[in-house]
Amino acid sequence: MNVVKPIVEELNLLDEQRKEQETKISQLNAEIAGYSEARERELPLVQEVESKVKELREMIAVFNGNQMSLRTSIRNLKEKNGQMDEKISKAEFDLVQSVQENANIRSKIVQSPDKIQVHISSY
């Protein structure tokens, strides 16, 4: 009997540990079930957010394309601006030359009718 008593006590201890483990497993299974239910409830929201994220990424791609297009347009406009500046500078230079030529021609024109008579009579 003394030999059986320690074995029975050990079996009782093992049985208590088994019951504790089964209780723990039941609790963990209940938690898992709760998480699974929460996941199922939140799945539509997650899908909606993922859809919005995809939409936003597509919008970003479009905006990036637009930005590149605008940068190209700005570069082209800057080039045209430089060309226009060159044309304006040339036109201003030509205008100054024309004004000087005009002044030279005017200085050659006789200013008074008496001088005209003098010039005509000398011929």
UniProtKB/TrEMBL annotation:
Q: Has keyword Coiled coil?
A: yes
Q: Which UniProt keywords apply?
A: Coiled coil
Q: Which segments does the entry list as coiled coil?
A: 11-94
Tell me the superkingdom of the source.
Answer: Eukaryota
| Name the record gives this protein | Uncharacterized protein
